[in-house]
Amino acid sequence: MTEVKWISRSSTDPEHFRTETFPNGLTLLTEKIPHVKSVSIGVWSKIGSRHEPADLTGISHFLEHMFFKGTARRTAEEIARAIDSVGGVLDAFTTRENTCFYAKVLGEHLPLAVDLLSDILLCSLMEEQEMEKERQVIQQEIKMVEDSPDDLIHDLFAQILWPNHPLGRPILGSRETLARIGRTELLSFLNEYYRPNHCVIAAAGNLDHQELVGLLAESFGAWSGCGPTVNTSSPLSQYCQWEDRRDLSQVHLCLGVEGFPYAHEDRYALHLLNCLLGGGMSSRLFQEVRERRGLAYSIYSYQASFQDSGLVVVYAGTGPEHYREVLRLIETEFSRMVAEPLSPEELQRAKDQLKGNLLLGLESTSSRMIRLAKMQIFFGQIFNLEEVIQGIEEITSERIRDLAHRLFGSHAYTLAAIGPIA
Q1: Positive or negative, the Cα torsion across 146, 151, 156, 162?
Q2: How remote is the C-alpha of 3 from its chain's centroid?
Q3: Are 195 and 295 contained in the same domain?
Q4: What whole-number distance in Å separates Cα of residue 330 and Cα of residue 325?
Q5: What is the spatial distance between Cα 41 and Cα 211, in angstroms, rounded to a whole number?
Q6: Count of domains forming the chain
Q7: How far is residue 183's CA from residue 192's CA, in Å, rounded to a whole number?
Q8: Does 135 reside within a domain?
């Protein structure tokens, strides 16, 4: 086992970050927060939907479900009872680049959380009978998204922007690809990619680092093997207009462009631009489209980042009679971001909003655990709060305007829309 090292510590920041690398390649990161009662721990696999074969799209998500369907020691019901008996949470989620299995419990129940996580990840049975039941559950999940146009439109936008690329495929897969996934395919994917060198464990809250090291050494120490290096091609964006006429009450639309990777030098400027554009009730789009004109109930912007690319998207749901006008107003705000300098007051409001969101999020041990893991996976280092806040404060109006020019200056956008379009 390597020597423990401090990643970051300052006299004004009492939160302790520590990291550990086990002999099998598994990495541990912890943040001790003495004043809380809970601890959140997550096992993060660096494998997500973008790493799947095209004909088996959705296998990562299917595998995530199957980890909770029984092990050699516990049935699915016993897994649920074990975590409920201590008032905790045991869950998982799949993204395009990661899969996370996490637990949140009182600090005194951390040994149980580690035992449950290691049991489901290393000892799941993956029985055929359970697979068929879970296949039906996921089919219903896919149908639920298809019946929710305000959810579906985001998957459709990614497919239109990045056609024939894994980042453009839905995380859930499709009913056709789901039908191709058998136990053989599931176990093959599991054995190839779920290896300790592809995983990071992050924990934050009421914990003792050395105690957790001992628990993990006992539960995960025998986990062996080395997964292959994952090489993925960067997506090539397609800027076009795609409209699907459906019998709905509203038109649901996403208009946007390709964004930036996680570690891009302009990431703080991008977060601020998103705040200004549609990141809250005071944002330009919310105020113009909803408050002043009453053309939409829901309108917002968001940015999503991946290792080598990203998205900047505006979503709106509006009546068919207002569809073209809402599109025009969104494009007008894109152009304003390019042409007009920000006032010092507007820029400071966006900075205060971003810092406030960050600090409020840090009140949750789950958020801190997720932050730890993402910084390690995408940046290879931990940034303390002072560094992040300084990065935000250094952004100028000119830098945001330059960024807006790179994103929106060519007027090349991708549009995905579904609904009663005339």
Answers
A1: negative
A2: 31
A3: no
A4: 9
A5: 14
A6: 2
A7: 14
A8: yes
Alpha-carbon gap, residue 165 to 396, rounded angstroms? 35
Rounded to whole angstroms, how far apart are CA atoms 254 and 327? 9
pTM of the model: 0.92
Q: Are residues 334 and 370 in the same domain?
A: yes
Task: Establish whether 64 is a catalytic residue.
Answer: yes
Q: What is the DSSP string of 56-111?
A: GTTHHHHHHHHTTS-BSS--HHHHHHHHHTTT-EEEEEE-SS-EEEEEEEEGGGHH
pLDDT in tens, 130-151: 999 999 999 999 999 999 999 9
Number of H helices, E strands in the chain: 15, 12
Parallel, antiparallel, or unpaired: how do β-strands 241-245 and 414-419 relate? parallel
Full domain range(s) for residue 157: 5-220
383 Cβ contact partners less than 8 Å away, ≥ 6 residues apart:
8, 375
Do 320 and 367 belong together in one domain? yes
Question: How is residue 177 written in tokens?
Answer: 């690809």
Report which of 35, 50, 81, 44 is spatially closest to residue 64, judged by C-alpha positions: 44
Q: Choose, from 20, 31, 52, 64, the residue flagged as catalytic.
A: 64
Whole-number Å distance between alpha carbons of 4 and 19: 6
* Amino acid present at 10: S
pLDDT in tens, 189-238: 999 999 999 999 999 999 999 999 999 999 999 999 888 888 789 999 99
What is the pLDDT of the chain when averaged over all its residues?
Answer: 94
Contact between 222 and 23 (Cβ < 8 Å): no
